[in-house]
Amino acid sequence: MSGLPPPEEWPSVRGLLAELPDEALPRAGRFLARLDPAEVLAAHPATPLVSLYVTGHGTLAALRPALAVELARHGLLAGITLADFDAWVRDLADPASDLYTTLGEAGGPAFALAVLGPEIVAAELPLPWRADDAARVLDTKIALIEKLAETFASTANGATLVLNTLPLPRELTAQLLDRRERAALGAAWREANTRLLRLDRPEVAVVDLDPLLAEGVRARDPRQSVYAKAHLTDDLLAAYAREVGHLARQAAGQGKKVLVLDLDETVWGGVLGEVGPEGVEVAEGYRGEAFTRFQRVVRQLGSQGVLVAAVSKNDPEPVAGVLRDHPGMTLREGDFVQVRANWRPKHDNLAELAGDLNLGADSFVFADDSPFERGLVRRELPGVAVVDLSDEPALHVTALLRDGWFDVPRLTSDDLARPARYREEGARRGFLESFDSLEGYLAELGTEVRLAPAAPAQLDRVSQLTLRTNQFNLTTCRLSPAEVRDLAGDPDARVLAIASADRFGEHGLVGAVLLRRDGAVLRVENFLLSCRVFARGIEQAVLGAVLEHARGSAAREVRAAYRRTAKNGRVAGFYPEAGFTTVHADEAGAEFRHDLTRPPEPVPHIRLSADFGGHQP
Amino acid sequence: MISVEEYVTLLRDELALPVTEDDLGRSLDTVDAWDSVHLLTLCTLLERQTGRPLPFARVLEAPSLAAVYELATAS
């Protein structure tokens, strides 16, 4: 977000924020805070509005942008009222206060945020003071808060009071020199926080700041605290606002129920289609342990009513095999309500899954390590929450849990029984093959493909592709590095490397085409493409370039073969679909020819540059 | 160090204030969309950008954005 969004563009804000890194959110929040909710509602009357009355100790104005952006991330408009400075006790104690009036007038979900910091205690310590003085002040404060919570519960109909635990600053503990005294202060402080946490009831939510601080968020900036009475840092208030955003999302009825996981590089390491069931990383080795840790957390969520499903671009049988037989897997087939392993666009799978489960896709959370797949789902199904997994599996758990997607005020027995119920209904469909229209997305993706003779440094990677690619491998002719090198040196042959990139970044060397010139016949000896990038038009564009090259170099025809294996069934039709005719075909495979009378079909969304390295082959 | 242009860019792009260089000398309460909390955020952003601490107490007394700039760049 690079400026103040006009109110009428509100519906696009959520999608824009989803692509921003955390460090860019405060800035977006400062712009969003200037947006008048009334103007957004005038332009889009159906926008869900959540009313937030912010009160507490000290200067809390930094919460306004933080709340605006954190609620907008969930598509919620924040109607924020900032109370007078330090008016929290009066606000909460007096049933006729501005706080209760404002909450009473709120049309939708309403929250009172009573933001409290350690200064409510520090400011009332005598001088000199001892641990039992602090304990006494803490006791008085918590008793007061307990009473205010009672008043709130009986006064604010349907609204929620949000309290928070008090961070314990070293500036306090270090003032006590006696070790036992210092420990006593620590214990009394924790007892006060424990009492606060025990206040959690339907009308009261307590945000525990300890886990946020443990992530490394700084609690206080003494200068801001002393000079500006801003007792909690902007960073801590931003983390707090994120938690409030989760509460607001739940109150607005936008809780999530289904976790849809990609499999390769999400649930296990490696690409199953390339490395095979024995090659996937799970349970053992550094990365394997990281994936197992993630699987355990998924299972933990599943035990609390989250429906877990898998949508993976893979053939169904190997996926079923790994889930059933791989000794290292924590997640098994029975942990999923559905496993959809096929080659169709993931958003189509998600939409069908939603139909099968009889849930809206907006109750879905989708986690994938591929920016391509995430971008496509975000675009096609904007209601789905998308979790950005990286190529570092040790960070998968943090990413999955970052937004408390499945948090609920209270788990019900129905929640707990839900996964079993869906499994019994057991609609395990899927495994169908079709390729629906993706043109719009692919056009926006800006895919660039470079086809050129493999450089010496790329020959090992080409060998690796022939050895490890099982699915998009037309002949499955495996070549050692030495054999690839020989081929590259053969004047009648050509080893072409396919490299690609799109707006998400470089994919590097993703495929290879092996050509041989035999008089007036140009032979495609093999065609390989990593499953990370196929079904985006790259294969059609490259084959088109080969046909164009043949036409331009006086070849009479192009010949190509397909050798069937257990894993490459889905590319059996690759050449016929590109205009080749079948010379002969049997169980083992087929031979094709293209007579070059008609030009190949263009692939408009791909920018391809082709270099065949001179006129031969 | 931060140039005047960079300072104005920071005010506009990071702080979301619709100001130009001409507004720097104005009294803060007449700056469009100004709120006292902006001063705190501005301190944080300036310290992050310049890598040097600001005298907070004096910044809080600054009458204008130009005065804040002078404090941030004073040697």
TrEMBL record, chain A:
Region described as Disordered: spans on this chain: 596-617
Matches recorded under SUPFAM superfamilies: HAD-like
The protein's name in its UniProt record: HAD-IIIC family phosphatase
TrEMBL record, chain B:
Source organism, top-level taxon: Bacteria
Record Gene3D superfamilies: ACP-like (1.10.1200.10)
Alphabetical list of InterPro entries matching this protein: ACP-like_sf
Protein name: Acyl carrier protein
